[in-house]
Write a structure and sequence with these properties.
By secondary structure, the chain is an alpha/beta fold. It contains 5 helices and 9 strands. The chain has a 6-stranded mixed sheet, with helices on both faces. Helix 4 links the parallel strand 5 and strand 6. The longest helix is centred in the N-terminal third of the chain and has 18 residues. The protein is globular, with a radius of gyration of 16 Å. The structure holds inosinic acid and magnesium ion. The site of magnesium ion has 3 residues, from loops.
Length: 182
């Protein structure tokens, strides 16, 4: 089964070990930056689930975990720019330090929308933490506080990232063959 998914990849760009080492590095930074604080971690469904799970296991702070679901993509690989909230947070974030955890920043439109939306709840601070970033694809200025890896504009899957809801369970990240989605 996993082999069948592997065949859909042009190549693996990040191994499981490389990812987990980077996640530990990011967690160490957060442990340092948020010393003596109790952040609210908001994981963006569904792509950030694997990343946020591994991340919080390495965070040694008292924290709360919440989830938000938005839609922007459908089954396409192009950002529509239209963001809709499908599941809101249940935590009161007013006067709290929020860390938004995302799988990948492409145009930046999704996170821009989410952080503007969350600011209305008057958090003390909002930081953005994304495992992957596609800097060449940004359509707006977005400040990313914690980033794992920069990638090119290819479509990547695995470790939470999907194409049409598949490949999320791969423990590594790879570039999807163009023939799969075109
Ligand atoms: P943005 O609004 O264009 O920044 O889109 C961000 C969202 O698009 C991410 O949360 C992902 O769900 C999805 N996305 C963007 N690029 C990729 C990719 O290469 N693989 C899988 N999902 C992606
Ligand atoms: Mg996503």
């Amino acid at each position: 089964m996993k082999n069948r998914m592997k065949n859909d990849l042009e190549k693996i760009i990040l191994t499981e070990n490389e990812i987990l080492n980077k996640v530990q590095e990011i967690a160490d930074k957060i442990n340092h930056d948020y010393k003596d604080r109790e952040p609210v971690i908001i994981s963006i469904l569904r792509g950030a689930t694997l990343f946020s799970a591994d991340l919080i296991k390495n965070i040694e702070l008292k924290l709360e975990l919440d989830f938000m679901a938005v839609s922007s993509y459908g089954d396409s690989t192009e950002s529509s720019g239209v963001v809709k909230i499908k599941k809101d947070i249940d935590t009161d974030i007013s006067n709290r330090d929020v860390i938004l955890v995302e799988d990948i920043i492409d145009t930046g439109l999704t996170l821009k929308y989410i952080s503007e939306y969350l600011k209305k709840h008057n958090p003390k601070s909002i930081a953005i933490c994304s495992l992957l970033d596609k800097p060449k694809a940004h359509k707006i200025d977005i400040k990313i506080d914690y980033v794992g890896f920069e990638v090119g504009n290819e479509f990547v899957v695995g470790y939470g990232l999907d194409f049409a809801q598949h490949y999320r369970n791969l423990p590594y990240i790879g570039i999807l063959k163009k023939e799969i989605y075109s």
